[in-house]
Amino acid sequence: MRKVLVTTVPFGDRVSLPLDLLEAAGVEYVMNPLGRKLKEDELAEMVGDFEVLIAGTEPITEKVMSRAPGLRMISRVGIGLDSVDLLAAKRRGITVSYTPDAPAPAVAELTIGLMFSLMRSIHVANVEMHMGEWRRHFGRRVSELTIGVMGAGRIGKRVLCHLAALGAGRLLVNDTNSECRLDRTIPGEWVEKDALYRGADIVSLHVPLTAQTKNMVRREQLLAMKHGAMIVNTARGGIINERELADVLRNGHLSGAALDVFCEEPYSGELSSIQSCLLTSHMGSMSADCRTRMEIEATEEAIRFLAGAPLRSMVPPAEYQVQWEGL
Amino acid sequence: MRKVLVTTVPFGDRVSLPLDLLEAAGVEYVMNPLGRKLKEDELAEMVGDFEVLIAGTEPITEKVMSRAPGLRMISRVGIGLDSVDLLAAKRRGITVSYTPDAPAPAVAELTIGLMFSLMRSIHVANVEMHMGEWRRHFGRRVSELTIGVMGAGRIGKRVLCHLAALGAGRLLVNDTNSECRLDRTIPGEWVEKDALYRGADIVSLHVPLTAQTKNMVRREQLLAMKHGAMIVNTARGGIINERELADVLRNGHLSGAALDVFCEEPYSGELSSIQSCLLTSHMGSMSADCRTRMEIEATEEAIRFLAGAPLRSMVPPAEYQVQWEGL
């Protein structure tokens, strides 16, 4: 029985400390040989004789687990759990941990960067300039905008704080978690979802992908937004319906969108042909410091597990509940 | 004698108020018929029988003024005066006014947006994604960076305040104006120019174009910067030597640059072929609110001049002194 399969990519790329930790602990490990996000079948074929996965966002399904009789632990490098069938893991006695705090600062800053590009058409001008075209685009300033943040968890809250610090005109917030509303350190006015779509010049999504949020933003929500408004998704692909977003961008109702995440990654779809759609490659957590912290935390958790030591960031019951409610 | 030639482009495009003001005051005006920045010869040919120019950044030289015997006033839409031969204007008794405060908020925000794009390779990923390529770029976060701001005037100061609010790791500042150093509301450590180039992960330029700042940033300064550092210019073309910047980007010493301004505009030069170079089309002041404010202020000043009323933002003697010292 081999110990650890590292499926996430990259891993130990900028800072070798995660690899050093595994070696210092005497843990045998194998790296994802394809060097990219694995598909379900590829993972199922590879996973056979490992005890622990240090996992990215590849699908860790019932089918995958059924091919891994010795699998005892999944250590997710990141916060999202939509890729892991938590209930199947529980039935099989597989422990799941994650790194919920580490990615937040990097994702929040990428979100702010994407917003500025949209506000000032930086991405459009850059492409035009590299083609030798000179067009001066009118932009908008953060102080005259209403920005709506859907989801005020670790990342959404940081986005709101950055925007408040930059002097954003008005901030709207929505979160289904009623505890968030009691957090006095979250700037913004609490509104219902509908009011957020209707009122915001920019809508930014910071909710997890669950059965409840899948396809949460469809044509109806996009058309409810103001003419010329913009939308940002650095959360998970599938929360916005990609096909309907493409239609709404093409017909000009929205002036721009920025997506870092996609239903299928690597992405290659029709949004690539829409210039007003700013696209990045799931780089939210990809700052050197945050990525390293995620990798180290997930690796240390795997080492603790193999050593029989207490774990520090097991996935809490509420996350299992969310998946159970989605059945 | 016709009254007003509006050379700046766009003008009255988003908000027609500047045009309405001219009409309400009964001032006859002619708009730039080419719809783009004029070259010296084009302007010289057009300027013949006007009393007032509402001017963009086109060259208003001795030669141009010699062709405009009736010219009595230049009302600049913007802050930069490098395009106006102030000493020639003075000799001919031509009054020059400008709008120094209006563009600052928009330029500062564009600068922040360009910095975020550089920090996270947003512009590079966007181009790759639109070509169907998926590459995840490592980025850096503002809290771990040292950012150097050259020039702490109206715009540089705002950039520094935004960066401080976003939690920038360390801020370095340089300004030749010793009064700036006494301004306690400017965040950052005052350093000499050399120390700023050597110490910063991002250098941002916010100085006017003068004889002293022309070619201020050459190969020597660029190579003095850290390996992998980045540079932003939203001030004026010509402050960075474009050819030497292209060389330094190509050989990989700098990881990126963002330019909104160029020696010759519209720009079409070798930087267009360098993917790590983020290019925008002199859009610094092009937010709807700031652009409108600039146009209104410059128009009101022209109307006041024609009515014989006191002016509110004549170019101060210090600006004439700067050009005199550059002779």
What does this entry look like structurally?
The structure is a homodimer of 327-residue chains. Chain A is an alpha/beta fold and 327 residues long. Chain A has helices at 17-24, 40-46, 62-66, 86-91, 104-120, 122-130, 154-165, 193-199, 219-224, 242-250, 288-307, 317-325; strands at 2-6, 29-31, 50-55, 73-76, 95-97, 146-150, 170-174, 189-190, 202-205, 230-233, 256-259, 277-279. In chain A, strand 6 (146-150), helix 7 (154-165) and strand 7 (170-174) form a beta-alpha-beta unit. In chain A, helix 5 (104-120) packs across helix 7 (154-165). The longest helix of chain A is centred in the last third of the chain and has 20 residues, at 288-307. The model of chain A has no long low-confidence stretch (mean pLDDT 96).
Regions with little confidence, pLDDT below 50 for 5+ residues of chain A? none
Structural class category of chain A: alpha/beta
Please tell me what the overall shape of chain A is: globular
Helix tally of chain A equals 12
Strand order of the largest sheet of chain A: 8-7-6-9-10-11-12
Q: Helices and strands of chain A, in N-to-C order?
A: EHEHEHEHEHHEHEEHEHEHEEHH
Let me know the average pLDDT of chain A: 96
Radius of gyration of chain A: 21 Å
- Count of DSSP strands of chain A: 12
Oligomer: homodimer
Amino- and carboxy-terminal Cα gap of chain A: 33 Å
Beta content of chain A comes to 5-15%
User: Which percent bin holds the helix content of chain A?
Assistant: 25-40%
Biggest interface, and residues per chain? Answer: A-B, 59 and 60 residues
Biggest sheet layout of chain A: 7 strands, parallel
